[in-house]
Design brief:
Serine Threonine Protein Phosphatase 5, Tetratricopeptide repeat; single chain; mainly alpha; 2 domains; 71% helix; 13 helices
Length: 261
């Protein structure tokens, strides 16, 4: 992910170029990449960026990590170093460390221009760890919470539309997980357990497609155990929520009307 900023550069460009060239030459004398040989933060930052661009992610991680440990708290290069440290972990698919470093940036520098980008990226890293609905949704919930926190703390963020869509996608997957669990219990005639899951989908994820499906399956569960009043109230809710839906009309039609069809 590319941040919406120009990376911090030293004020005296010629001096920086000399330092960077010297540092890179020094690094060539060593086996591997040794962040300790660089005499200035700017030269280490430049060398770490070079390693990142070359795809040498472990080296880049070492460089940016040293910067996050060595730079003074008020150095304008520090939040940028945290950003790129997180990026290296992201590209290595070490999503937990990526998310933690993105969040550390946002928590330590809440007024930095990268703070909202970092929270968005942190949520994406958490979401990447929840690959299928069958898995424990811990990281999906962390992604959801991180994105909601972003919108709460940065209401004017230009990322609002992207964040809202990302929340919608993760909620749809969470709804799918609970719906499939409800289906599992319904097929085994464990109606009480099925009812709990279908009701939870309708309450927690009302904007998802699985909310309507859960309502229809909940109706089947109620009728299977002869919960007449609950079925009647549910049909009233479904008809209000989905007035033009053919499946809802058919499922909630009076017995005589159903027979006539």
């Amino acid at each position: 992910m590319t941040p919406r900023f120009r990376p911090v550069r030293p004020r005296r460009a010629p001096l920086a170029l000399v330092l960077l060239a010297t540092a890179l030459a020094a690094a060539g004398c060593f086996k591997g990449f040794d962040p300790r040989v660089f005499r200035t933060s700017e030269s280490l930052f430049g060398a770490s960026m070079d390693q990142l661009k070359r795809g040498r992610l472990e080296n880049a991680t070492k460089g940016f990590e040293k910067l996050t440990l060595d730079l003074p708290a008020r150095d304008p290069l520090l939040p940028v170093a945290f950003w790129y440290l997180a990026v290296t972990y992201d590209r290595r698919e070490d999503y937990l460390f990526a998310a933690q470093n993105y969040q550390r940036l946002a928590e330590t520098f809440p007024d930095d221009s990268l703070a909202d980008d970092a929270l968005f990226a942190a949520g994406k890293s958490y979401a990447a760890m929840w690959r299928t609905p069958e898995l424990d949704p811990q990281y999906a919930l962390l992604a959801q919470g991180t994105w909601r926190g972003l919108l709460a703390n940065y209401p004017e963020t230009s990322l609002r539309d992207s964040v809202t869509k990302a929340i919608g996608r993760i909620e749809d997957k969470l709804a799918t997980k609970d719906y499939e669990t409800g289906q599992h219990y319904l097929r085994r005639k464990a109606y009480d357990s099925a009812i709990i899951y279908f009701k939870d989908v309708m309450k927690t994820y009302p904007a998802t497609p699985h909310a309507r499906l859960s309502g229809l399956r909940l109706l089947s569960a109620y009728r299977a155990i002869k919960y007449g009043e609950e079925a009647k109230e549910l049909c009233e809710t479904l008809n209000k929520s989905y007035p033009q839906d053919g499946d809802v009309k058919t499922a909630c039609a009076p017995p005589a009307a159903t027979a006539a069809r």
